[in-house]
Amino acid sequence: MSGAPPPTGDDLVRVLATLANPHRLRVVAALARERAYVSGLARQLGISRALLQVHLRKLAAAGLVTARLELSEDGKAMNYYEVEPFVLTLTPAVIAAAVETLTVPDSGEQPGAQR
């Protein structure tokens, strides 16, 4: 069992909302196999680089992926992405504890939404 503290309510909402998208699940699965640069990953997944960038930004904001700028052999700067190791254990007790720390949203705002 991991020694990591249980997620706060806002963190749990943010991570679950981020993973609740089939494109982002595919990105995480691809990056779990190997790190990749944007163009190569976009080709592999069959989506545009622009759409992939949107999903990578959301995954990075949730702390699920990180980027590292590296120079290729021909001198081009390339962003390589990789998955940050994470474990997400969902039990009724974990959810009950997380709910106690949720930020009370303003009217119409989602809990855990970035402000």
Task: Provide structural commentary.
This protein is of the alpha+beta class and 115 residues long. Helices cover 45% and strands 14% of the residues. It contains five helices and three strands. It has a three-stranded antiparallel beta sheet. Strand 2 and strand 3 form a beta hairpin. The longest helix has 13 residues. It is elongated and about 50 Å long. The N and C termini lie far apart (33 Å). The relative contact order is 0.21.
Instruction: Briefly note the structural class of the backbone.
Output: alpha+beta
Mean pLDDT: 89
Q: How many DSSP-defined strands?
A: 3
- Estimated helix fraction: 40-55%
Ranges where pLDDT stays below 50 over 5 or more residues in a row are none
| Gyration radius, rounded | 16 Å
Q: Please indicate the percent range of residues in DSSP E strands (runs of 2 or more).
A: 5-15%
Order of helices and strands: HHEHHEEH
Number of helices: 5
Main β-sheet, in a few words?
A: 3 strands, antiparallel
Shape: elongated
Spatial sequence of strands, sheet with the most strands: 1-3-2
C-alpha termini separation: 33 Å
